[in-house]
Fold this sequence. Notes:
By secondary structure, this protein is an alpha/beta fold. The chain has three helices and seven strands; from the N terminus they run αββαββββαβ.
Amino acid sequence: MTNEALQQLLTSWNPNLEFTDENNAYLNVTVNAEDLHQFMLQLKENTETSFDYLFCLTGMDWGKELGVIYHLESTTHRHTLVVRVKTSDRENPNFDTVSNIWYTADFHEREAYDFFGIKFNNHPNMKRLFLTEEWEGFPMRKDYVDDVNMVIK
């Protein structure tokens, strides 16, 4: 499926999607946080899309917003998609887990929590992955300061 055809299909599912042109091979779409889980489930289960492979999940700090970027591929149809979700709530950023859709999300979501403080609702084991439980703060955030451990940006 071409990016144009994929965009038309996804817009028919949810007219509130925001598409961006990143000048690359992947179609980029931003979904509202409250629609994330259902949208992702539909991406996997719909036979026209069949996104059966989550090959990357990345936490992001865009300054005013925190979010997650998901890279998906259909091994059946050989098309890819980048899905973004954002929140301006830096005090309590959270999104629904997709680990019950793609098992590979389990550790990726824990990593996003560990380094960005993004929590995933209904995650089976939402705890730090790399840093100790005593660690204060989230070192990949742009506003993170740690004079003790000398994290320099």
